[in-house]
Write a structure and sequence with these properties.
By secondary structure, the chain is of the alpha/beta class. The protein is 28% helix and 18% strand. The protein has a nine-stranded mixed beta sheet with strand order 1-11-10-9-8-7-4-3-2, with helices on both faces. β10 and β11 form a beta hairpin. α5 packs across α6. It binds 2-acetamido-2-deoxy-beta-D-glucopyranose (3 copies).
């Protein structure tokens, strides 16, 4: 069971949209470089903890506040909850916490129902819209465009989230911010990371690691993320969400993809360039599996509220 968010209210989209543009992309702006193996030690030290924090974001706000959400919370020790936002309805939940072991401020965004999400991201009526240059001054007079539904959803909690991050940095004294999320939460995390990077002292290290990230904007947005953040996003086998919205509509991934090759949870590769055809972008309409969107990723991390304490299946 998923915490259900009516994305229909965010996008004037019909669910009957055809699925298109899912064939392997061979267009000029897709990278073709050979992926390189990622060691399990690197997975453990850089990807596992963000995945565990993203998994917590699917649990109820009350159980996150008291850090008593069952196995997802128990996997993370020495965490102090600081703030949450969203309403577990139309506005997806996020939380901010202090990770004492890593001396990091963590920001995690909840995702949404993958089946509905996939339909919406395939809708031809969805639009690219200019990145808000009031929030991101560098976007003024550029052609940076993002998914209108993602930006609208992001804006609903952006001000409160940013105030919470500034307060959290001040109260804890840490100098690292780790932003994460899965699915819709991954798209929101990309925007949140860029916002925080713009708003805090340059000495603060802002990192973004996401899971099951859809394409969030055009090539100029992908380049903006590359230069500003150096995003890391993990794609699992034949998950179709990372290949929508299609490149044919002008969407493009940034660099930083790490692809899970098979279901052993042992074989991961780093994919050079943007939209590398040897990784998720090479998936096609005939071999996709939306269950791969949920996981398991590594160390058996699977996303969704079924992982949380007190949830009836
Ligand atoms: C990764 O962490 C898991 C426990 O989460 C451990 O069992 C495994 O040995 C670690 N692997 C490496 C290569 O560090
Ligand atoms: C984390 O918690 C353990 C006990 O669960 C404690 O021994 C350790 O000192 C704590 N670390 C920090 C950084 O607070
Ligand atoms: C753009 O960002 C500003 C904050 O800088 C915010 O107040 C405003 O609502 C945003 N505009 C839109 C259309 O979301």
């Amino acid at each position: 069971m998923f915490t259900f968010i009516s994305l229909l209210s965010l996008l004037p989209a019909a669910l009957s949209a055809p699925i298109f543009g899912l064939g392997p992309s061979t267009s000029d702006d897709s990278a073709t470089g050979t992926p390189t193996p990622v060691s399990l030690a690197t997975v453990n030290s850089t990807l596992l903890r963000p995945a565990q924090f993203s998994r917590v974001a699917y649990c109820s706000s009350a159980s996150i506040t008291s850090w008593s959400c069952g196995a997802p919370c128990d996997a993370l020790k020495n965490i102090t909850f600081l703030q949450s936002g969203g309403d577990e309805g139309l506005i997806p939940l996020y939380y901010i916490a202090h990770d004492a072991d890593e001396q990091t401020l963590v920001v995690a965004h909840e995702g949404t129902d993958p089946f509905k999400f996939f339909s919406l991201l395939n809708d031809a009526e969805l639009a690219l819209t200019p990145l808000n240059s009031s929030r991101f001054p560098e976007a003024a007079n550029t052609d940076i465009q993002v998914h209108d539904g993602f930006q609208e959803t992001f804006e609903r909690t952006a001000d409160g989230l940013l105030a919470g991050v500034k307060a959290g940095l001040a109260s804890t004294g840490v100098t690292k911010v780790a932003v994460t999320g899965h699915s819709l939460g991954a798209a929101l995390a990309s925007m949140t990371g860029a916002m925080i990077k713009d708003a805090v002292d340059p000495s603060i290290d802002v990192s973004v690691v996401t899971f099951g990230l859809p394409r969030g904007g055009n090539e100029a947005w992908a380049n903006f993320l590359d230069s500003k953040l150096g995003l890391t996003f993990v794609t699992n086998q034949h998950d179709p969400i990372p290949i929508v919205p299609p490149k044919a509509l002008g969407f493009q991934h940034s660099s930083g993809e790490i692809h899970i090759v098979d279901d052993t949870q042992q074989n991961l590769v780093a994919c050079p360039g943007q939209d590398n055809v040897n990784c998720a972008t090479g998936n096609s309409v005939i071999d996709f599996d939306i269950i791969n969107h949920l996981g398991p990723y590594f160390d058996d991390v699977t996303f969704g509220s079924q992982e949380c304490a007190g949830v009836l299946l």
